[in-house]
Structures are given as C-alpha cells and as structure tokens.
Amino acid sequence: MTLAGSAKLAARQTTVRRALETLKLEALVVTAPSNIRYLTNHGGSAGVLVVTGDAMHLLIDFRYREAVRMLQASPSACPSLRPWDVSGSYDEALLDCLGQLGVSTAGFESPHLTVARHDWLVRTASARKLPLVFRSTGGIVETARMVKDDAEIDALREAARRLTPVAQAAFSMVRPGVSERAVAARIENAMRDAGYERTAFDTIVASGPNGALPHHRAGDRKFETGDLVVLDFGGVLDGYCSDLTRTVVVAPPSAEAQRVFAAVREAQQAAIEAVRPGIATTDVDRAARRVLETHGLGEAFGHGTGHGLGLDVHEEPRVTRPRADVAPVPLEPGMVFTIEPGAYLPGWGGVRIEDDVLVTEHGCDVLTSVSYALIPD
Amino acid sequence: MTLAGSAKLAARQTTVRRALETLKLEALVVTAPSNIRYLTNHGGSAGVLVVTGDAMHLLIDFRYREAVRMLQASPSACPSLRPWDVSGSYDEALLDCLGQLGVSTAGFESPHLTVARHDWLVRTASARKLPLVFRSTGGIVETARMVKDDAEIDALREAARRLTPVAQAAFSMVRPGVSERAVAARIENAMRDAGYERTAFDTIVASGPNGALPHHRAGDRKFETGDLVVLDFGGVLDGYCSDLTRTVVVAPPSAEAQRVFAAVREAQQAAIEAVRPGIATTDVDRAARRVLETHGLGEAFGHGTGHGLGLDVHEEPRVTRPRADVAPVPLEPGMVFTIEPGAYLPGWGGVRIEDDVLVTEHGCDVLTSVSYALIPD
C-alpha cells in the first residue's frame, strides 16, 4: 500500500492546526476514520485522534498497536505522532488523554459523533471535575480533503484507470441467460486481478425492470433480449475510491431504450462540459437535469448528479439540486467527483452513466476511460 | 431474498410499541438501518422510520420507492406501513412528518444519531415553533434484536452452515508460495458460489508475522513453510451474518506454533462450554481468558471474546471483560454470538479460532461446522 509521505502529512496537519487557531480551540477530537487516515496514515477502523498544536495524539487499542509501530518505522511515518494505548473504552481513554494534556477547550466533529457518545463525554468530564468544554465543529478536515493534493490525484487517477479492463470483462458477459450475480462475481474478480484492495461499495448489476431500482444490487435474474443492464462498480486502490456506471443492452435495443439512453448520455456530457473552476456544484447538477427535462425525463431523475470521491466513496462536494441541507460549493482545481445522471422508469428499467472527473485549471479531466456504447463490442 | 413474514414483523413492532408506552413516548425515530430493516423489512441504506402507536411511517427517497412498493405487494409486507416521500433532506422530511402527525414527544436513537443531525432537528423544530420535544433513547430495538426469533435462527444457522465448503476451499490453498490475496479471492468466490449475497466484512488472510495484526486484511505476502495463517471471513445470507476464523499452518508447524494453537483452542472450547442461559457475557469471556492466562498468553489476548451476530456483524451482546462502557448481559436462549479468543505475538504471528453459537435451553449449539485441525487435510 502506498501512503502519503511524512512531508505531505505535515502539510495537512498544518491546515487543520490553522483552523484550530481561528476557532480558538486547543484541540480537535477527530473520530471519523477517514479523517484520521488523512491526517496520520493510520487506516484502522477504530481509533480516536486528538490534534493539538504540537502533537497528533492517536488513541488505539491492542489490535492496531503493531500496525502503528510499523507505520512509524516507514517513510510514511506520521509527524509528531504520539500513540496512546486504549485498554478499555475509547471514550474513557479520550477523557484521560484530554485531562493529562490539560486541554480546556476541545472541538469535536459533530457529524461524526453520536449523541450517546457526546452526552457520556460531557457528563463524565463533569463528574470527574475536568475543566473541559467540548465545542461542536463540522467539516474542518472534510474541507481540507475536498481539494486533493498531487499524491491523492495520482492515486485517484490510477484507481479510475484500472476500471477499464474490469468494465470490459463485464461487457463480455452481457448476453441472454447470464445472471446478474454471475456478472457481479466476474466484476469483483476482475477488480482483484486489477490490484484493488477491496470493492468501494456493493457491486450493482441491475437488469430489465431491476434497473428502475437505483440501489438494486445483483440477484438471480437472468438477462433477456432487449434488457438494459446497469453496471455500477468501483474499487479502492491505496485507500482511494473509484466509481463507474455504464448501461448496456442485451441486443437488440428497443427504440425506447435507445431514446432514454441517448438522453442520459447527453445529460452526462452536458454536466461534464459544465465543470470548471468557479462554477457551483448546483450548476453542474442543473446542466444534467435540464437536458433530461427537455427529453421529458426530469421526473425520472430523482437523485443528485454526483458526489465527491477520495478516501470515502461518498464525500464532499455533493453535486445536487439546491437543497436546504447542502450548501453549493464553488469548484476548485483538484476537486474530484462523480457525474452520474440517470433515468428510472418503474416496471420498465433504467439508465445511468457515471464517470469520475478531476477539476482542472480550465475545465476537467475525465479520469475513467470506458466505452459509452449501448451495445458493447 | 427471504424476509420475515408480516406476522413476525407485527410481533416485533408490538415489542417496540410496548417500550414506547413504558417510556411515555408518542413516537420513536429510528435511524439505524438494521433496526429499520428489523421492523419493516426495508433494507435500503437510507431511510428514517417513525414508529407510532398505529403506524410505521417510513421516510424514503426516490431510490427506494419502487422497492418498497414491491415489498408491500409481497407476503413480507410491513404491517401498518405508511411510506413518506423524501425529495430533499431526510431531516426536513422528518420534521414535516412529526409536525403533520402532531407528535409532541419523540424518542430518538442516541447511539445512531449524530450531534450535528440532533442539533439541526432541535434548532429547526424550535424555529418552526413545533411543540416537539426530542428525548434520548438507547437500545430499544437492539434489545429486542438480541434474542432471535425462529426465522432469524433459521437464517443464522444456514448462513453459518454454508461456510463449511468455503473454509475447505481456503484450506486447499495453504501451501508455500501462495499469496494472502489469492486465498482471499478464493474465499470470496466460494462465498458467492455458496449463495451469500455479500461478504459480512473484509476477508482476513494473515500469514506469518501478519497474524500478529488482528485487523490485517490480505496483502501480497506469500506463505512460507512454518507460517501460521489466520483465515477470518463470513457471508451475509438473507440479511443475516456469519463469521468464522480458523488458523492453519503451512506444515510442518514449529513446537511453539503447536503450543499457542493448542492454548487458543482450549480457551475457545472452555468459553463454548461456559455458555448457557443465566451466565453473564463477562463469564464467557472469563472462561477463555483464564485458560490463556494459565498458558502465559493473557497479555497476548488483547480483545474481547466475541460479539453478537444478526443483521449486523457486530451487535449486542458483546462478550468482553467487565468494562465501564459495556454492561454484562445475562444469556438467554435465542442469543447468537461469536466465540473467538486469540493470541498475538508481535513479529512472530498469531492464532485466532472463532465459531458462531446459539444459546439453547441448556447450553449452546455451535452453528459453524468446520475442522479445527492445525494441519488441514
């Protein structure tokens, strides 16, 4: 596994420490695993990180002690790391750590801490008479992660590039009588052969009417002539996610299949062409949605146009309609996200086409490189 | 996919409604996906459920509308289901729903709601002048889920049973020169062939020194003579999880490997034999831990002995040492959990042996059925 070098980690940590200064916080308690990974290279599923002005206090249990020791002996060692052993509960250990450090004002990640944990921490700190105040923060690390650095762009580019042979393997199985499940197995084998460490999400193979269920996975249904087949899959390489969707037909396609497919492809291309620095995420969504509305498919496109891609398969920025809970984000070079409009017609089927794009100085690079043909070669 | 029948769902809902009465709550807002699935059969990754005395208000977005319509036309339809369309944010829709229903006191699941969502809900309800109070609850549905009903036991039994050929396929590859990754691929293919809908967690193949990292996954390391190899995998069948670990050797084993292996196997057997109704989870842990301490391996066993198994691969009850944050649970017939002691020696390797057990009237049934031989056939 390739990890960010120590100098890169130091730069990321500096960004977060500047945010702490601005917010007048002595420490930030980081509980989201991918935020911990971004700042320390520690990739465990458990762990709590306390970022202070001079150290990265990483609380880990027994299971990760040896892995962290090996990390620190590598060129990807985390600068200023101070590991803390957790023998019981993480939150007990967290209070011990904050108490020993004498922290009086600690930020926590409100989108990544449950009410139960928060209430326990506040109640127990008070019972222990710790002079400690917890302050809600949101998106400090996520904002830093939204614009990828060079090492991340290399990883995302390679993760996207390797989907090409995987897609070809899937296309080669699209014929009558083959089951969705068999194609999903072929896709996942091809991802392993391509070197991905794991799938980024559950592989979707949705044929015929199942294509109208945007989150169908892969079942026992066998392909029939005329079926549209939605193939949605991605792999994780060096921690970074890729995500691709293609829709193909079990030839020959009906006139309606060709019409809907052409409309979605046109919408996807319009959104890709809209991407450039300064444009808002909502404008990218608008570009796709307008095309589908023109074709009478506005109602059939019920989800957002895309999502950020990085250490998480769904991260910032969200490419959606204007929504009360999602602030539009002006695009910047280095952002990476998916563009994946679709049209879903209950009882009939669906079409979705998805690529991963990198915002560049003047537009975007499409990182995935797979044929869009409705009838695969 | 086999789902619980409508009558079974009705019984589960009754249990939750009784808890609401006891707590004097008009509604429970359920946000944990596996709790929603347990009460409604809706298996989507998004959704919010509002349980009231007379209805199950299921808030779902576009992606799941068609799937819910199909569910309601099946013998596994959710009784008293009322679907609500979500077009923007789930939490906006939740406030709309609670407002329209005139709910004034709603419980929420504090272990499954983030501080950010909670604060937004409270602030926005207040801004809208809704006469609505949110009250923290924890474990209402999890407590109901801890004791499995007959349909769940059948599903868990079958999910465990099908691991036998998967383990055999893995064992057949344990010889010098084979990579961890290749064995993980074989395991995952065998799981698909066995009919599992997905893996329950990332497959672990940890050989030689990697075995000392309890959460190593599967890398490029190739097996060498004398290596201990920890194989930890599981599949999901009809929504229910299985979880198995075996440790085998690339023959011949060293005397130390035989010694550590025998100690862990003895500890695991002692824990299995301790299981019966009325015994506390901490006593089961104690039975395993005492054996390892006798063999001088107490320090090498740094994690808990097991975890509940059901719709989630890690659920209640936790089988651990006495801990401030985990209350011991007295065992009851129908509980299902893993028993998986291990010993991890940094730089050398590790051993873990894991089965899934069902608590019965007088002891337990071991649901997994795989050879314990250190040298596989």
Shape of chain A: elongated
Q: Number of helical segments of chain A?
A: 11
Supply the number of structural domains of chain A.
2
The helical percent of chain A reads: 25-40%
Sketch the major β-sheet of chain A: 6 strands, mixed
Note the beta-strand portion of chain A: 15-25%
Tell me the name of the CATH class of the largest domain in chain A: Alpha Beta
The assigned structural class of chain A equals alpha+beta
> Oligomeric state of the chains?
homodimer
Order of helices and strands of chain A: HEHEEHEHEHEHHHHEEEEEEHHEEEEEEE
- Largest sheet of chain A, order of strands side by side? 4-3-2-1-5-6
Total number of beta strands of chain A: 19
Quote the average pLDDT of chain A: 95
CATH topology of the largest domain in chain A: Creatine Amidinohydrolase
* Biggest interface, residues from each chain: A-B, 53 and 53 residues
Terminal residue distance of chain A: 34 Å
Q: What's the name of the CATH homologous superfamily of the largest domain in chain A?
A: Creatinase/methionine aminopeptidase superfamily
Structure description:
The structure is a homodimer of 377-residue chains. Chain A is of the alpha+beta class. Chain A has two domains: 6-145, 3-Layer(aba) Sandwich (Creatine Amidinohydrolase, Chain A, domain 1); 150-366, Creatine Amidinohydrolase, CATH 3.90.230.10. Chain A contains eleven helices and 19 strands. Chain A starts with 5 loop residues before the first helix and ends in an 11-residue tail after the last strand. The model of chain A has no long low-confidence stretch (mean pLDDT 95). Chains A and B meet through helix 3, helix 5 and helix 9 of A and helix 3, helix 5 and helix 9 of B.
